[in-house]
Amino acid sequence: MSKVELQPTIAVEIDDILDGVARLEMSELEFFTDRVMQLRARRRAPSLPKNEADLLRKINRGLSPEAWQRYESLNQKLHEETISPEEHQEFLKLVEQIEMTDAERLFHLIELSRIRGVSVDDLMDQLGIRRSNYA
Description:
By secondary structure, this protein is mainly α. The chain has helices at 14-22, 26-44, 50-60, 65-80, 85-116, 120-127, and strands at residues 3-7, 10-13. The longest helix is centred in the C-terminal third of the chain and has 32 residues, at 85-116. The mean pLDDT is 86.
């Protein structure tokens, strides 16, 4: 089994790292996966043209972990029917922000796929981006 060396004297099994990642809150998991995808993209193409590197940075940009936590908290209140009118308005603004971020990400994915001469689906596969379960 592969290990990750954290310091010269500490090695951790990959499965142990994955177990730790599995316990992250959704917002932390999103932040973590964004960072891993950025690292993966840099390793796959360490000398990208500037325009492609800029697009990849924009594709990997997302909401802050704090915004995701607040979204999750408000979403739970919505489902429990305990959300106040003010919180509902805040929730709707966060949903709009998420949708805008997703739309911008798609715009940048389309541009990068055009530059690389591949379909958006193929580009997403190359970058390890999963498709949403909602439409």
